[in-house]
Amino acid sequence: MAAFATQLIQWQQKNGRHHLPWQGTRDPYAIWLSEIMLQQTQVNTVIPYYDRFMQSFPNIQSLAQAPLDAVLALWSGLGYYSRARNLHQAACMIMQDYQGNFPQTRSLIQQLPGIGRSTAAAIAVFAYGKCEAILDGNVKRVFTRYFGIPGYPGESKIQTLLWRKTEEHLPGSNQKHHIETYTQALMDLGAIICTRRKPICTTCPLQKNCVAFNDNRIEQLPTPKIRKPLPQKEAIFLILLQHQKILLEKRPSTGIWGGLWSLPELEVDENASTYCRQYLGIHVNLPTSLPSLDHQFTHFKLRIHPQFLQVVSQSMIKAPQTTWVKPHDALKYAIPTPVRKLLEKHFLTDNVTLNHPIIDKNNA
Ligand code: SF4
Q1: What residues does CATH 1.10.340.30 cover in the chain?
Q2: Whose CA is closest to 342, among 331, 332, 329, 334?
Q3: Fold annotation for 232-363
Q4: Mean pLDDT in residue range 98-111
Q5: Which range scores top for mean pLDDT: 121-130, 169-178, 241-250?
Q6: What percent of the chain is modeled with pLDDT above 90?
Q7: In angstroms, what is the span from residue 169 Cα to ligand 1's centroid?
Q8: Probe ligand 1: pick from 189, 203, 210, 220, max atoms within 8 Å of CB?
Q9: Whose CA is nearest to atom 1 of ligand 1?
Q10: Residue 140 burial by CB count (10 A; 0-12/13-18/19+): exposed, middle or buried?
């Protein structure tokens, strides 16, 4: 077991990643933010978001004091927005319950919203040098292959077995001071060597004793989840234009895209003109259908049918939680990715103005 840790530590020192923006610090806030952003998201995607976020909210206090809208706006495009909501909520809790000091043990860190056992362990390791085991997606892949463990790693009995393995293979007492390097090694190995497709076993420090490599079972491990086809939903999104501005509507704080600004959304069998009159207090011309757009969530697929409508007149009724903004300014709001794509496609590409050719042509 000691050899396992030694091989990884030596490999990381020579071949691992050492210059990521969140490395070389003991600041638990910076480490926490990186760990949350890196859940479900690749390093290269995370880096610009991480830099912008740290510039705007450099510490727990500034994050806790910020309006949730501003936090969501910086997160816009990164997806999985509950991560941003939980970050904000956890920052407020740290200010209130810990006087702004980040908790220092894995068990306390784990009690904050949005932080699971593995993320709490990673923060405890990198910020405080605690000897804790991690088990993120990359580590699950390395361990299932190295030990030749069949079964879907999300299944609880496989997960329990993997946690036991990761705890058993932590650096021994004479190597505990290398816990950060060891933990980083596991992350790096999963990210750059033992990748999901085509792992580079020839340069892997664990190759000699890797069961999957020796038994030629790399392709089969980790065992994939048996997936059912995702259900497909459909919705109409309204692009309402008035005085060169479009209407954004704030979504409820819970549910899909909770708390984000989006375009007014209708069921596919609803009538746009009636909806505009009854719920938004505006009269519109006949809608123009724009090409549909597909978006995939974890649990379903959404086909969006955008409709463009010019506002003819507006009554005094003001729908709550709505705002008129220029399309360019809308991109600074916390908006979901497909809405961003729609606005960029129909308003903000080169040679395209608010009188978009597609719209003009269809209206003609
Ligand atoms: S030898 Fe290959 S399959 Fe085994 S841990 Fe290394 S990279 Fe992964």
Answers
A1: 2-220
A2: 331
A3: Nucleoside Triphosphate Pyrophosphohydrolase (3.90.79)
A4: 98
A5: 121-130
A6: 83
A7: 16
A8: 210
A9: 207
A10: buried
